[in-house]
TrEMBL record:
Domain Pectinesterase catalytic residue range list: 68-352
Signal peptide range: 1-23
Enzyme Commission number: 3.1.1.11
Presence of the UniProt keyword Hydrolase in the record: yes
Family per record: Belongs to the pectinesterase family.
InterPro entries hit by this protein: Pectin_lyas_fold, Pectin_lyase_fold/virulence, Pectinesterase_cat
Top-level class of the enzyme under EC nomenclature: hydrolase
Keywords associated with the record: Aspartyl esterase, Hydrolase, Signal
Keyword Signal annotated: yes
PANTHER family in UniProt: ACYL-COA THIOESTER HYDROLASE YBHC-RELATED (PTHR31321), PECTINESTERASE 49-RELATED (PTHR31321:SF78)
Name the UniProt record assigns to this protein: pectinesterase
Species, as recorded: Camelina sativa (False flax)
Pathway assigned in UniProt: Glycan metabolism; pectin degradation; 2-dehydro-3-deoxy-D-gluconate from pectin: step 1/5
Length: 362
């Protein structure tokens, strides 16, 4: 019959329709540092302004959030972080904001996969510390973390997350993680991560870090995450061989990678490397980043496997400071043009328009 369209044809049209690309997914982070905060506020608006644009499960979760309070001294709903997390039912479907009173919480915290939509919220301007002393010798590397997150849509703000195991002696192994994030669609605001070797396991999923501080010695950001770091300080301590990133991308089809935008590389001594090829296809880009003289002139550690020279993606774009000079960089450092840089400078890199929200107010 003329004008009749079958249901199967409609289904085909839906399947092959081009995806909708939202403006905030493609608007690049500005080159001017003073414009970064206005860019963020314009592109990552609170939930009421985002209704109808977020993942359906996230929309439902944000509609009626629940607040839990934790205070070690009493007066809150719980006195420990783990007790508050365990009070959330498995299969949780609403945003649960766990407000932590300032203090030092000496506990090993896990947010398991069955408890999504959790926010750990510290008080701005006050120290709220999660600390533990787990080591790879006792727990295994990735299980040594003070905070381990398996659940989607996690958020943390205004926290200090520390592994207090002692610094390993130069030339010895001493993995001891502050955090392992192994969940998709997680955001961290104004958080500080302290450790030495393997401080932050930025593993599977899309992640966003803003206004954070990460301290370590060797491979202190590692894993296979697809992550955007904005206005974050990367601080090297210790001596001997030191490397910031060890990205775990293993093939050219993997969409993961680390993008550092308007960050700072600082530290003591000289000779830290921006990254190394832990696996065959690491992807790490620094853009608009201020690099102090702590950075080794070659930039990136020479690959132990020479074939990896052809498969690594090490990029630097419009960086500044004495450590940013490219004259002595390893030959396989990528020369990124404006068009290519924009891929690493937008929320589209982490598919942020469908899930990224600002931190709640304490």
């Amino acid at each position: 019959m003329m004008g009749y369209i079958s249901l199967s044809l409609i289904a085909l049209l839906v399947v092959f329709a081009p995806p909708v690309v939202l403006a905030d997914d493609i608007t690049p982070i500005p080159a001017e540092k003073a414009q970064v905060e206005p860019w963020f506020k314009a592109n990552v608006q609170p939930f009421p302004a985002r209704r109808g644009t977020l993942d359906p499960d996230l929309e439902a979760a944000e509609a009626s959030p629940r607040i839990i309070t934790v205070n070690q001294k009493g007066g809150g709903d719980f006195t420990s972080v783990n007790a508050a997390i365990k009070s959330i039912p498995v299969g949780n479907k609403i945003r649960v904001i766990i407000k932590l009173a300032p203090g030092v919480y000496k506990e090993k915290v896990t947010v398991d996969v069955g408890r999504p939509f959790v926010t750990l919220l510290g008080k701005p301007g006050a120290e709220t510390n999660l600390t533990f002393h787990g080591t790879s010798a006792k727990y295994g590397t990735v299980e040594s973390a003070t905070l381990i997150v398996w659940a989607k849509y996690f958020m943390a703000a205004n926290l200090h997350i520390l592994n207090t195991a002692p610094m390993p002696k130069p030339g010895t192994q001493g993995q001891a993680l502050a955090m392992r994030i192994n969940a998709d669609k997680a955001a961290f605001y104004n958080c500080r991560f302290y450790g030495f070797q393997d401080t932050l396991c930025d593993d599977r999923g899309n992640h966003f870090f803003k206004d954070c501080y990460i301290e370590g010695t060797y491979d202190f950001i590692f894993g296979r995450g697809a992550s955007l770091y904005l206005n974050t300080q990367l601080h090297a301590v210790g001596d001997g061989l030191r490397v910031i990133t060890a990205h775990n991308r293993q093939n050219s089809n993997d969409q993961s990678g680390y993008s550092f935008v308007h960050c700072k590389v600082t530290g003591v001594g000289t000779g830290i490397y921006l990254g190394r090829a832990w696996m065959s296809h690491p992807k790490v880009v620094y853009a608009y980043t201020e690099m102090s003289s702590v950075v080794n002139p070659s930039g990136w550690q020479e690959n132990r496997v020479r074939e990896h020279d052809k498969t690594v993606f090490y990029g630097e774009y419009m960086c500044t400071g004495p450590g940013s000079h490219k004259a002595k960089r390893v030959a396989h450092t990528q020369d990124i043009d404006n068009k290519e840089a924009n891929h690493f400078l937008s929320l589209g890199y982490i598919k942020g328009s469908s899930w990224l929200l600002p931190s709640p107010v304490y």
